[in-house]
């Protein structure tokens, strides 16, 4: 396959303009993905402080955090105070020249500022508006504040994380729900753009953090609806569908492996890797139902085996036998992992005003002809305000100076 030349390949979303008026992760993440595939994203921020994401995480020499530099990549920062009439009017002018708006204020906030859906649709009938909140634009919880950690709880996934009868724990990253919702939001925007191509009609996308989490719970809902079954916490071994299927400590201090035997054939391969092929005999543990009925014993056998060997030895034996296994990687492990390097999952970006190389996750998904790009990391607050107001809205230098004096920008 020929590698596309980024200098000549036109990205699929070139010509699409996005206004990102949201904060922190979920809706801004949708805009970031669009920017990586060619969309021009104008990050509209309050002149005082800007997006709180600038202060979320580890600060750099520029004061903006590493999280901001990574997640606000490719965007242009434009400051506007939407509490002021002049800011509202400028925002409408930007909307008139844009295709997509991403926002995540509480329901009613934009309406209070005179920037609700009906107003903006009148300004731009083809507008696509992503609205991200904790609980959506409707329902009895619509006015409650929403955060990913709370969404994990309400959406049902946090209940499943932790040791049996122990305290439920965070299911991985505290921001998982934000990223999930950002992905669903991006999918919604792309589908809405396709609809607009056919009809010229815009629409809004109502995305709720808890719904994105709930959508990732496999058979949780039908199993309860049909049988009244409530899945509980299983700790490092998940035993509802397969066994062994979980995390097992190795002889190395603090090193674990993940093993997933979802079929009898895969368990047979694991038994061979363990040097105990007799375990896969039909009258022993060769049948999935038998393993599930004897899950404690099976998990103990696998746990004892893993605990007797170094992690690399376990993995090499599993790989040789074709048994599905992998390391539980820390970020240090990831930086040294050949697969991550071969796939270029880590991208080094030099930013002059940071004075250091910043390593960030690469662009996803991978397209063979029009792969996404990182043009630059998160911008300084207001870095592109004058450029956008002058070039896009046609404001003169004295008008921009007047706006600055009034603290509109």
Cα(first) to Cα(last) distance is: 48 Å
Share of β-strand residues: 5-15%
Strand order of the largest sheet: 3-2-1-4-5-6
Ranges where pLDDT stays below 50 over 5 or more residues in a row are none
Mean pLDDT: 95
Question: Would you report the number of β strands?
Answer: 11
What's the total helix number? 17
Largest sheet: 6 strands, parallel
Class by SSE composition: alpha/beta
The CATH architecture name of the largest domain reads 3-Layer(aba) Sandwich
The named CATH superfamily of the largest domain: Crotonobetainyl-coa:carnitine coa-transferase, domain 1
- Described by the principal axes of the CA atoms, the overall outline is elongated
SSE topology:
Blueprint: E1 17-20, H1 26-36, E2 40-45, H2 66-71, E3 76-79, H3 85-96, E4 100-103, H4 109-112, H5 117-123, E5 128-133, H6 148-154, H7 176-199, E6 203-208, H8 209-214, H9 220-227, E7 245-249, E8 256-260, H10 264-273, H11 288-293, H12 295-307, H13 311-321, E9 325-327, H14 331-335, H15 338-342, E10 346-351, E11 356-361, H16 385-391, H17 397-405
Parallel strand pairs: 1-2, 1-4, 2-3, 4-5, 5-6
Antiparallel strand pairs: 7-8, 8-9, 10-11
Helix pairs in contact: 1-7, 10-13
Which terms would index this structure?
single chain; 409 residues; alpha/beta; Rossmann fold; formyl-coa transferase, domain 3; 2 domains; 6-stranded parallel sheet; 3-stranded antiparallel sheet; 17 helices; 11 strands; 37% helix; 13% strand
């Amino acid at each position: 396959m020929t590698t596309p030349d980024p200098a000549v390949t036109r990205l699929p979303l070139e010509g699409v303009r996005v206004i990102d008026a949201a904060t922190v992760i979920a809706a801004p993440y949708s805009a970031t993905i669009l920017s990586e595939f060619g969309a021009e994203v104008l990050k509209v921020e309050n002149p005082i402080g800007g997006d709180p994401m600038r202060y979320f995480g580890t600060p750099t020499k520029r004061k903006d955090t590493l999280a901001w530099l990574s997640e606000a990549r490719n965007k242009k920062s434009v400051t506007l105070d939407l509490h002021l009439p002049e800011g509202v009017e400028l925002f409408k002018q930007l909307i008139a020249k844009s295709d997509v708006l991403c926002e995540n204020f509480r329901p009613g906030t934009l309406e209070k500022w005179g920037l609700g859906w009906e107003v903006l649709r009148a300004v731009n009938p083809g507008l696509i508006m992503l609205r991200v909140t904790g609980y959506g634009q409707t329902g009895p919880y619509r006015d409650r504040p929403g955060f990913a950690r709370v969404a994990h709880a309400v959406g049902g996934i946090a209940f499943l994380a932790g040791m049996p009868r122990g305290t439920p724990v965070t299911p991985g990253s505290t921001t998982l729900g934000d990223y999930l919702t950002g992905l669903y939001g991006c999918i919604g925007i792309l589908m809405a753009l396709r609809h607009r191509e056919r009809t010229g009609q815009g629409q809004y996308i109502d995305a709720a953090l808890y719904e994105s989490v709930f959508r990732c719970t496999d058979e949780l809902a039908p199993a309860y609806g049909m049988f009244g079954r409530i899945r509980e916490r299983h700790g490092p071994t998940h035993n509802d569908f397969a066994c062994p299927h979980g995390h097992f400590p190795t002889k190395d201090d603090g090193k674990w492996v993940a093993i997933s035997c979802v079929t009898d054939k895969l368990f047979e391969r694991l038994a061979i890797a363990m040097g105990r092929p007799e375990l896969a005999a039909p009258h022993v543990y060769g049948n999935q139902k038998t393993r599930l009925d004897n899950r404690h014993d099976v998990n103990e056998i696998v746990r004892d085996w893993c605990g007797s060997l170094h992690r690399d030895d376990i993995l090499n034996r599993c790989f040789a036998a074709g048994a599905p296994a992998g390391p539980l990687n820390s970020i240090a492990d990831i930086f040294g992992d050949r697969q991550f390097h071969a796939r270029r999952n880590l991208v080094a970006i030099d930013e002059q005003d940071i004075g250091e190389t910043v390593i960030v996750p690469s662009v996803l998904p991978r397209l063979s002809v029009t792969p996404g790009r990182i043009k630059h990391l998160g911008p300084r607050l207001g870095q592109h305000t004058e450029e956008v107001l002058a070039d896009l809205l046609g404001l003169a230098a004295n008008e921009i100076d007047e706006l600055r004096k009034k603290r509109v920008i």
